[in-house]
Amino acid sequence: MQNTAIVKPILQQQPEKPFRGSYPKTTDILNTKLELSFNWDSAFVIGKAYIKAKPYFYPSNQVILDAQGFRINQVAVIRDQRKLPLNYSYDGKAIAIQLDKLYSRDENYTLFVDYVAMPNKLKTGVDINSADSRGLYFINPTRKDKDVPRQLWSQGESECNSTWFPTINGPQEKMEQEISLTVPDTMKTLSNGLLRQSSENSDGTRTDTWRLEKPHSTYLTMIAAGDFVKTTDTWRNKEVSYYMEPKFAANARLIFGKTPEMMEVFSKKLSLEYPWEKYSQIVVRDFVSGAMENTTATVLFDRMNMTEGEYLDENYEEIISHELFHHWFGDYVTAESWANLPLNESFAAYGEYLWNEYKHGRDYADYYGLKDQQAYLSNPQNHLKDVIRYHYEHQDEMFDNVTYEKGARILHMLRKTVGDDAFFKALNLYLTRHAYQTAEIDDLRLVFEEVTGQDLHWFFNQWFLASGHPKLNIASHYDEASSQVKVTISQLQDLSTTPLYKLPMAIDIYTGTKPDRKQIVLEKQEQTFTFPVHQRPKLVNVDAEKYLLCEKTEEKSLSEYVFQYEFAPLFLDRLEAINFFKKNSGEKAARQEMVKALGDQNWYIRKLAVDFVPLLSVEQRNSVYERLKVMAVSDERSYVRAAAIAILKRLFKNQDNSEVLEKASKDKAPSVMKALSGW
Questions:
Q1: pLDDT (tens digit, 9 = 90+) per residue, 127-165?
Q2: How many beta carbons lie within 10 A of that of residue 471, not counting itself?
Q3: Threshold 0.70, pTM exceeds
Q4: Which secondary-structure segment (H or E) carries 333?
């Protein structure tokens, strides 16, 4: 572990929660081989584990393996193809094994554990943290419910895989693996890596052997079995596959078919080809979260079992791209401790932005970036938490809006701060330097400093290693006498708990329809920036790239917001103006701009404009009636079509809408069908 010191100012009293650093490494698991079968009636796992390991550094004659709620039949060491029994103790949570001798770090040994795992018997709050920590789940195992398929699937994050095989918990432990699954021969199985062997047994079962030949963290191990249809694509001669229940499988390519394109986009962005043997995605019943990025085999919740109509409302590309991006950030390079979880999750969340930006454009990506920012800002408890934080009661606390959404916005700011070329070059260096290993936040900072030649402690200290965010007040003034624009920016956040930020940003000054961009750095509690301008500007647009994670207040006139909506280039520029128009709906110019917004390039702004129609004058409402009818059947986004139908039903029910109703009735989107109901 590299421990390069980062000097962090102590801004507030340390919380009372215990310090959680990286787990010590005493034993290094090199390979785990599992032979598993299942008692479906009792939901038991009958397992044999062969664990090849060695001391991490110091000589050792003991191994401690996490194993929750097992019945242990035998523990042995394999020597000359013989199983030599070993002494051990077991407390229901971990097996403490006395080895047959003192091993040095250059000596390997192979342990054998014969066991029965009983995950369904683990008690919430006693054996496991929550019902979502059971590790292995049997769905309808006795087939009592005729409408629910019989399945099993695992969920290892954070430390749940030790409920079904003996291992070492935590993100720091990486291993290769081989898993043999014996299941009814009507079932399909999935695990990490490639299917190396499949053999029929005489009792109506089949044994499938899956092997992953690159090391990954133990929590990323997965298994699944059930009645699935496998649909296969390829990417650069690697298999890409989608496992779905038979009645949903016809839509597998509709739902997952962009995956090869995503793999290509991310491989090119990172200048690093997708680093695993294959990539599979499987949709299971009653999954405990949205999805999980198990190496080469992502598990997804059953909302992915979509019809063509449901896909029109939500295609869940953000989930698909998120889990795929994890295969670089989280699987290929893994956070060495749960405190550093943002090195996995912030990156995966930002992978959503990168995909949306490539596929759908910056406007579309910025909308989802705004949702991330709002998710963080909306909960005041988020403002009290460091992004990289070492004080928590349980590691599951790390899975929150700070780690995901705030972290993604910080990465976007880092990208804007150093520029695209440096950003992606640094990511490539980070990935290649720590390939199939773990890393901490210092490692990320160091590669960015190496690439840029700049000391970036200031950025990492204020964003990754502190809590809160800037609260800015912005005031712009034009001095006629001196022909100068003066922009005063104040940082209003509580400096006893939150940093005084250093904030590079752009200011666009418009005297015509094209801006004159000025680069500034705000680094004081209040600063005034002065720029010579030959005439009164039509707009002074502070944070012109709209990338700062902050709360801000700013006074602008209606005419300035009208200009901003029509000439500033970004979605967030236009949205700022739209929100002002909504608050000032009594102003004629505001209503006129909302009418123009019905034709905005961004679907979300179009929907806001449709929802605004009741606030228009009667004359303006009538003027947009024909446009609403077109939008109700032709807008590319189903939510806009649904909003237009809702307004037609509310305001224009007595008009002749028969043609619209006939066309809209053929729309398969649930949102549109709901809007049509009762008409």
A1: 999 999 999 999 999 999 999 999 999 999 999 999 999
A2: 16
A3: yes
A4: strand 333-335
